[in-house]
């Protein structure tokens, strides 16, 4: 808590100064700081005045602000080549190959024609440059379209609004917008055609949310039918540009030296759309790249996948291997020169053998450069784009209701979906529908079930919620007594009725719901207040008869019968009104109040228009709205009661928070209400309902004035405004009178139990992190099969209990329980205990306990705790984590996990905007992970291994030749074939392999989730797998080199003629090796393999027929045609290919026959008939279930239940231990 005495200190030195006009303030600032006012002031905050201001300093200051022209492109016409080159040179692989190309221009170490050596790097960098240029052109066209939009800007010279392009708008301009126009820059709202000074905006272009947000004109500005820009002479001071969409701090100073605080409700954000208002006028405070929309435009997310990190390590091994081979060649060349005695076939050279060996080291670096796969990185990008294409176009992941599929927002971690080990899920809106149905309520300690309630499906957007609530007969009867004859009820009954009235009035006014019409949902103004059906004097008399002035309620009578009036109001409201809410809870509560006749008709910044039973529209002055905050876990409104004139605070929030704030009540009636309400809340939680408490507080005028003075002080501050406002709200929300509580049912999404069961069978540990009560979370966990009837629930409530559970679990594990999904234990922990277990001293014990549990449920957890839990598990256990959620409170958790998935649900699009992947239903997670995740990982892992294999295999052919040419760096093939062999002839097949290969069909992967464990264990890309591929490449290169060598020993063929069958054999071996590794062979695979082979032979034949001087100083003319006319060539190529591939074929056949993996067994099952497949599938599942049962050995007398009543003492004990 911030002390009141610290307010001036926290508010900053700015608020301590005397209030002055802009000119006086600037003069004082310059005197204090010795000039340079504009520059220094801009560092601290922003001063905004109308663009026609005559003050030179302000003019200069506003000229320094960004203009509204935006440019999201990276390059210009002149900067493209140098800037793109600079960016590509940040890649180590590109620098490596440029260095080798430059080295080849040094005559003493060059290996072949210098011009040829630059072809690979030029080719790869050109492809990347073309891709970057294409993307930049798309951005340029988008920028031009945005910058050329038109809007009305006030021109003082012409005394009217003129059309200007968005790019020409500046800070200080007054902009006029009409309904459905897009806002060109961040503007403070000065005028609205709405008589209440309200306008609504739709932020779908900014955050994807389609529900309306209410904005209001700055207080104390004149509101009339016309706004005269010439009369506006106030100035604005606000914070410097930032990316916080939900925060705006500043103040407006009027000519009378009166300051009015500015909030986010006064700010119209760029890219949003004006709705519900004919005309608005605002002054631009942030333009162009300084707007909040552009500050949040960070482009696509980039994360490094686990496979990519492993790839970089193996590239380093290849570098070490390359250096070793070059060192061997250099040493061999030195010894070879030392052993020569004036050979007649060498030109005399005075170079020392040691220096010649040093030169030869660099020559061999050039010759063997393709050992580092230059085309691998480009190929990986292409493969990932192909994988994303198939994920996004999977019809099984398409939601026809929302017309959305999967969104892949991170383009480089698709393979991580196949290695997930821990899944962290939100509950509300993720596992459940987040479509709330008012189910029960308790008012004044009496519980009212609503068993007959049923959902009503809306034909409008998902955020416009309909929920037909059937009133409870008992509660309805009590309300009907107020419409009966005017006789004074008993005092106890009067108190209960007052509670009921205030309860429903709080549900009606304590919210941010926007009222609109089903026929014109974006063009509705607030209804005009009509005269009540009965006079206010009669209503006051009614309250006097109730004799409870502490509980004022808005009520009067009507000449209609109670039943007919209620039906009339309910029917009329349902047919004419739509409630748009940022939270589905609010919409459900407003609909429930409406069912009892307390109907919300409209809302403005100054008043709320409601109907209560027996009255017409009634205007309630709205003094303050204290919005929901995750730290307070509640929201409040301060209203002035229209009948009694008293200041009343209505508060609703989390039950544990409200109950604590209401504990100070001393009278017996309030204590009895609290006790009964708590019992009802516990029952609601056991039934899985979302609970919310409602309370009120009546303020004395002096108390309100004292609070208001401090609150206005906080509102006008710029520094530390959030802390000051939080402290102000907490000061007001004390000594509350509990009115009642609500229970809302949130239905489980379809196929959630099946999805969680499949994920657990796949070896993924599922944790649920929720802010709901423990009983509610456990109930939902049972419903979605996260908890089973046979499970043992461990409830951790303190540090001592943590060690006790840890000891009990350790005893169990000694008797045979493995720390995996076979455990029958599920840990349940609440938010307060989680705070202690996240401390450094207890993290190890907590993780050790969770590893012994199949699942963990964290209740009452805050957004910060969610992200801390994910980070703890990710960093300490070194596992792959996935977080999924649908709301703004899940953003930190989603960003913290290795893979973040957002659900486009009822709580806006904040989670989606922060995620790596976005889906519309939780059930889609099953196929996304188990099928696409498995495919993406295995495809990419196998493709990378294949790249390493083919490069090492071909480079070794050049290396073996050095033993027969004095380690001179010569090659047995022309430089063109040498360069193009890995770059063109063998690069396309692995790309197709990485995009289309399927080791197991999608149906089988869904039927057998156990197959996913191969990806978790990285079986496709283990260090042993990498080195086995390298050894196989060495063996195949030996066969490919020495069989032609022995076949042509003693012949008179030339060097290039000797290399011809080696290259031909190498091509066939590499292509057929991929055919062996492929699990799926389609006509596309076959066509690409044939094309690669034909492309190679067409190239070498054409090269042999036409090239005379293109491989100076040698002449390859006619070599290939002569060799291919010899039958020995085909015999050598065939024999070499068979012998090279035979060990791999035999090894694979032996392993798949003797000890087949689960993937191989699944492949065999797919070849069976449908009936045999079903029998094999059933047998498989029975065997797996038997294995899990045999591994379980949990004693039935294990004591795992915590003593919840001693929670406070236990936590106090834990705090003492940690302190």
Description:
The protein is α+β, with helices and mostly antiparallel strands and 1219 residues long. Helix content is 47%, strand content 15%. The chain is built from 43 helices and 33 strands. The longest helix is centred in the C-terminal third of the chain and has 39 residues, at 924-962. It is found in: Endomembrane system; Endoplasmic reticulum membrane; Membrane. Residues 60-118 form the P-type ATPase N-terminal domain. The active site is at 426 (4-aspartylphosphate intermediate).
Please tally the β strands and state the result. 33
Q: Which outline best applies?
A: globular
Major sheet: 9 strands, mixed
Strand % is 5-15%
Q: Which structural class do you get from the secondary structure elements?
A: alpha+beta
Neighbour order of strands in the largest sheet: 14-33-32-31-15-27-30-29-28
Calculate the mean pLDDT score and round it. Answer: 78
Rg over C-alpha atoms, rounded to the nearest angstrom:
37 Å
Q: What's the number of helices? A: 43
Uncertain spans, ≥5 residues at pLDDT below 50?
1-42, 454-467, 520-575, 815-822, 1193-1219
The percent of residues in helical segments reads: 40-55%
Distance between the termini: 20 Å
Active site: 426
Pfam family, one: PhoLip_ATPase_C
Domain P-type ATPase N-terminal: 60-118
Domain P-type ATPase C-terminal: 912-1156
């Amino acid at each position: 808590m911030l002390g009141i005495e610290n307010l001036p200190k926290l508010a900053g030195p700015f608020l301590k100064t005397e209030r002055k006009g802009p000119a006086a303030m600037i003069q004082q600032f310059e005197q204090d700081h010795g000039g340079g006012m504009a520059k220094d002031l801009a560092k601290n905050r922003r001063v905004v005045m109308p663009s026609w201001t005559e003050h030179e300093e302000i003019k200069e200051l506003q000229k320094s602000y960004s203009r509204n022209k935006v440019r999201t492109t990276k390059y210009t016409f002149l900067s493209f080549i140098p800037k793109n080159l600079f960016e590509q040179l940040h890649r180590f692989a590109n620098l490596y190959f440029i260095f080798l190309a430059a080295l080849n221009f040094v005559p003493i170490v060059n290996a072949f024609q210098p011009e040829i050596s630059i072809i690979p790097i030029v080719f790869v960098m050109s492809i990347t440059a073309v891709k970057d240029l294409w993307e930049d052109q798309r951005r340029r066209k988008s920028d031009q379209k945005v910058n050329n939009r038109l809007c009305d800007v006030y021109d003082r010279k012409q005394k009217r609004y003129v059309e200007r392009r968005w790019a020409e708008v500046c800070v200080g301009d007054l902009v006029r917008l009409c309904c459905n126009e897009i806002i060109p820059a961040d503007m403070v709202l000065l005028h609205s055609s709405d008589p209440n000074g309200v306008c609504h905006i739709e932020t779908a272009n900014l955050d994807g949310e389609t529900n309306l947000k209410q904005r209001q004109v700055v207080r104390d500005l004149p509101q009339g039918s016309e706004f005269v820009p010439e009369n506006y002479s106030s100035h604005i001071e606000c914070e410097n540009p930032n990316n916080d969409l939900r925060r705006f701090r500043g103040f407006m100073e009027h000519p009378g030296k009166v300051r009015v605080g500015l909030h986010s409700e006064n700010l119209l954000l760029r890219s949003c759309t004006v709705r519900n208002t004919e005309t608005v006028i605002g002054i631009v405070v942030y333009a162009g790249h300084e707007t909040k929309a552009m500050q949040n435009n960070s482009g696509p997310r980039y994360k490094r996948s686990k496979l990519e990190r492993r790839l970089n390590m193996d590239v380093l091994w290849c570098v070490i291997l390359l250096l070793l081979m070059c060192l061997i060649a250099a040493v061999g060349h030195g010894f070879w020169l030392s052993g020569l005695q004036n050979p007649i076939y060498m030109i005399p050279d005075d170079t020392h053998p040691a220096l010649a060996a040093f030169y030869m080291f660099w020559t061999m670096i050039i010759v063997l450069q393709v050992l580092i796969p230059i085309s691998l990185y480009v190929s990986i990008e292409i493969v990932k784009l192909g994988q994303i294409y198939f994920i996004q176009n999977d019809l099984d992941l398409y939601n026809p209701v929302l017309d959305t599929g999967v969104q892949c927002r991170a383009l480089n971690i698709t393979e991580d979906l196949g290695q997930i080990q821990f899944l962290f899920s939100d509950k509300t809106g993720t596992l459940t529908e987040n479509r709330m149905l008012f189910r029960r309520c308790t008012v004044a300690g009496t519980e009212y079930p609503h068993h007959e309630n049923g959902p009503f499906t809306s034909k409008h957007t998902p955020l416009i919620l309909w929920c037909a609530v059937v009133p409870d007969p008992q509660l309805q009867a009590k309300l009907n007594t107020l419409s009966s004859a005017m006789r004074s009820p008993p005092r106890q009954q009067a108190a209960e009725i007052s509670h009921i009235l205030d309860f429903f009035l709080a549900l009606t006014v304590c919210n941010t719901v926007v009222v609109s019409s089903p026929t014109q949902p974006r063009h509705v103004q607030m209804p005009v207040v009509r005269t009540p059906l009965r006079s206010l004097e009669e209503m006051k008399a009614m309250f006097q008869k109730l004799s409870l002035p502490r509980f004022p309620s808005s009520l009067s009578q009507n000449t209609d019968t109670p039943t007919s009036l209620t039906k009339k109001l309910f029917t009329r409201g349902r047919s004419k009104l739509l409630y748009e809410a940022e939270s589905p809870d609010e919409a459900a509560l407003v609909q429930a109040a409406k069912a009892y006749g307390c109907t919300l008709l409209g809302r403005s910044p100054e008043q709320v228009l409601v109907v209560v039973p027996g009255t017409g529209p009634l205007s309630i002055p709205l003094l303050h709205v204290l919005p929901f905050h995750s730290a307070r876990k509640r929201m409040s409104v301060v209203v002035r009661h229209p009948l009694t004139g008293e200041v009343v605070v209505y508060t609703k929030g989390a039950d544990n928070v409200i109950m604590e704030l209401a504990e100070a009540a001393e009278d017996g009636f309030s204590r009895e209400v609290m006790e009964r309400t708590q019992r009802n809340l516990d029952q609601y939680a056991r039934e899985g309902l979302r609970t919310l408490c409602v309370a009120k507080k009546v303020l004395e005028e002096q108390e309100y004035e004292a609070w208001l003075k401090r609150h206005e002080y906080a509102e006008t501050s710029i520094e530390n405004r959030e802390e000051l406002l939080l402290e102000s709200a907490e000061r007001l929300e004390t000594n509350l009178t509990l009115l009642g509580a609500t229970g809302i049912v949130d239905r489980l999404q379809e196929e959630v139990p099946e999805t969680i069961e499949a994920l657990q069978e796949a070896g993924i540990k599922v944790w649920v992190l929720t802010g709901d009560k423990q009983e509610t979370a456990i109930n939902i966990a049972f419903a979605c099969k996260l908890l089973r009837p046979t499970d043992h629930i461990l409830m951790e409530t303190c540090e001592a209990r943590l060690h006790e559970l840890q000891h009990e679990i350790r005893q169990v594990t000694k008797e045979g329980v493995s720390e995996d999904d076979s455990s029958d234990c599920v840990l349940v922990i609440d938010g307060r205990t989680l705070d202690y277990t996240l401390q450094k001293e207890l993290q190890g014990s907590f993780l050790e306990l969770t590893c012994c549990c199949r699942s963990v449920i964290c209740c009452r957890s805050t957004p910060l705790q969610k992200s801390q839990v994910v980070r703890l598990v990710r960093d300490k256990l070194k596992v792959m984590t996935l977080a999924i959620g649908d709301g703004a409170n899940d953003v930190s958790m989603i960003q913290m996990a290795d893979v973040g998935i957002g659900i486009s649900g009822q709580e806006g699009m904040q989670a989606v905007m922060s995620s790596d992947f976005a889906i519309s239903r939780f059930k889609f997670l099953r196929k996304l992970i188990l099928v696409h995740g498995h495919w993406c990982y295995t495809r990419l892992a196998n493709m990378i291994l294949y790249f390493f294999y083919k490069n090492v295999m071909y480079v070794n052919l050049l290396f073996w030749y050095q033993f027969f040419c004095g380690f001179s760096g010569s090659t047995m093939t022309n430089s063109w074939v040498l360069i193009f062999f890995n770059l063109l002839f063998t690069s396309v097949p692995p790309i197709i392999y990485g995009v289309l290969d399927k080791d197991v069909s999608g149906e089988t992967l869904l039927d057998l989730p156990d197959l996913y464990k191969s990806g978790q264990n990285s079986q496709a890309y283990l260090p042993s797998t990498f080195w086995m591929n390298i050894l196989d490449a060495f063996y195949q290169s030996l066969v490919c080199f020495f069989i032609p060598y022995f076949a042509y020993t003693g012949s008179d063929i030339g060097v290039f003629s000797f290399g011809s069958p080696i290259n031909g054999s190498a091509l066939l071996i590499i292509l057929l090796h991929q055919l062996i590794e492929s699990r799926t062979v389609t006509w596309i695979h076959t066509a690409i393999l044939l094309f690669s082979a034909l492309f190679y032979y067409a190239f070498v034949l054409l090269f042999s027929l036409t090239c005379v001087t293109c491989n100076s100083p040698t002449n390859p003319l006619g070599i290939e045609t002569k060799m291919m006319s010899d039958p020995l060539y085909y015999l050598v190529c065939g024999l070499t290919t068979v012998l090279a591939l035979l060990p791999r074929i035999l090894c694979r056949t032996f392993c798949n026959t003797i000890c087949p993996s689960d993937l191989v067994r699944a492949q065999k099952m797919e070849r069976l008939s449908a009936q045999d497949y079903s029998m094999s599938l059933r047998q498989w599942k029975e065997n797996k279930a038997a294995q899990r049962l045999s591994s379980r050995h949990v004693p039935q007398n294990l004591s795992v239940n915590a003593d919840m009543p001693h929670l406070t003492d236990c936590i106090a004990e834990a705090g003492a231990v940690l302190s």
